[in-house]
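Technical annex, item 7. During the second reporting period the consortium partners agreed on a shared format for inverse folding records so that results from different sites could be compared directly. Each record opens with the tokenized structure and is followed by the designed sequence. A conforming record, contributed by the partner at site C, is shown below for reference.
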């Protein structure tokens, strides 16, 4: 049996009782290590708490050497551990399809992920539209397709959860070309970087005449940091102000609100960087 086990968002104690029992009993346990991190726990702390060794599973192992993970799963129990929920990344569904091709049975143990924990900011989950990913720009690669999706959500009055880029075990172009396994330090996109890229994208659209009346640098946004941990932080301000606001260590997420229910307004006000300024901004947003 191949088990997909969500670990939650905070630390080693966020595992479910069912998940913990399975981890302790399996033959091998792989820890997916490239789509997210636990905010308050290292691999060593997880191993100490679970009472067993964990095998790090980087992108290369999961996506190109999955047979190693699936080895003997027809007759032995294998666990694949994922930060958040097991289906937080599409690559994990690919692993399930590979298991099915080999007639390996699987079972999923769910847990909290940012996709539902984002409700902590006060915005109602059923009012969210399509989730978007914002990637870290380089000097030569600055995609802006995510802006169109945010604008479409806003036009429909829907909130947008923006998942921010994570760089784990990345190699430079030179090291890739020379096939040298020299990796760059991990990098986690901040809400200030995401907001800055959004503001620049919006301004570029305005310069070429594609003005957006629903999304501007003065639009409200919600910055979330370390959701699910004891140091969780939520800040509500404008995109322009968020671009220079530091909300601490990773992981970060960004939300662009759509139409607001009066209860959502009250909840967002609790996290407003400036309550009076927030009230002025809300006057420009449709209240449903």
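Designed sequence (site C submission):
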């Amino acid at each position: 049996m191949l088990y997909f086990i969500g670990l939650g968002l905070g630390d080693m104690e966020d595992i479910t009782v069912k998940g913990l029992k399975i981890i302790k009993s399996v033959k091998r346990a792989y820890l997916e290590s490239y789509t997210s991190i636990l905010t308050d726990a290292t691999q060593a702390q997880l191993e100490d708490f679970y009472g067993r060794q964990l095998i790090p599973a980087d992108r290369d192992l999961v996506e190109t050497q999955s047979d190693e993970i699936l080895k003997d799963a027809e007759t032995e129990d294998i666990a694949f551990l994922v930060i958040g929920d097991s289906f937080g990344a599409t690559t994990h569904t690919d692993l399930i399809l590979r298991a099915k091709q080999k007639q390996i049975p699987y079972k999923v143990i769910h847990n909290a992920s940012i996709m539902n924990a984002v409700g902590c900011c006060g915005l109602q989950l059923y009012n969210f539209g399509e989730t978007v990913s914002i990637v870290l720009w380089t000097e030569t690669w600055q995609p802006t397709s995510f802006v169109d999706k945010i604008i479409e959500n806003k036009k429909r009055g829907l909130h947008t959860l923006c998942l921010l880029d994570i760089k784990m075990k990345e190699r430079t172009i030179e090291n890739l070309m020379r096939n040298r396994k020299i990796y760059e330090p991990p990098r986690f996109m901040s809400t200030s970087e995401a907001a800055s890229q959004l503001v620049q994208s919006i301004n570029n659209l305005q310069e070429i005449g594609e003005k957006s009346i629903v999304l501007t640098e003065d639009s409200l946004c919600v910055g979330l940091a370390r959701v699910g941990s004891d140091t969780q932080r939520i800040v509500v301000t404008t995109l322009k102000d968020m671009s220079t606001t530091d909300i601490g260590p990773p992981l970060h997420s960004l939300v662009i609100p759509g139409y607001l229910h009066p209860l959502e307004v009250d909840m967002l006000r609790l996290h407003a960087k400036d309550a009076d300024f927030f009230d002025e901004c809300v006057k420009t947003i449709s209240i449903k």
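Residues 191-207 form the longest helix (17 residues). The chain has twelve helices and twelve strands. All partners now use this format for quarterly exchanges.
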